[in-house]
Amino acid sequence: MIYEIDKDHKIIFDDFRNVRLEEKADMIFVDPPFAINFNANMHTYNRKPDALAYVEIDREEYPIFINELIKWCYDNLKDDGSLWIISGWNNLKHILNAIDDHGFHTLNHCIWKYQFGVYTKKRFVTSHYHL
Description:
Helix content: 10-25%
CATH superfamily: Vaccinia Virus protein VP39
CATH class: Alpha Beta
Number of strands: 6
Number of helices: 2
CATH architecture: 3-Layer(aba) Sandwich
Strand order of the largest sheet: 1-2
Structural class: alpha+beta
Radius of gyration: 16 Å
Shape: globular
Largest sheet: 2 strands, antiparallel
């Protein structure tokens, strides 16, 4: 799905493997699956079907998937562009390794803390994402 903001700016909402850019991007923002065996059918939070695009990835496949994603980002981002990635803590190491392996320079590591962590009996509640 492509949203045209104006003649020079657009937002593309799709799996990176389906996207072919005509020119390199100023910014790429990705929210890859977390590979935590999440059941996406549990909650839809009243979203429309076109917004329910989460597809989980097996934990064993995650390093390969992330390397493909980061390589695609590197190949499609302008030299002075910005890459933003959302990640939970579970597989963050694969993302950080891929960033280093593909030649990116990490400028900052931001934490997005939220108040609505999912209740759990056996683990600490996760209430933040890495950006």
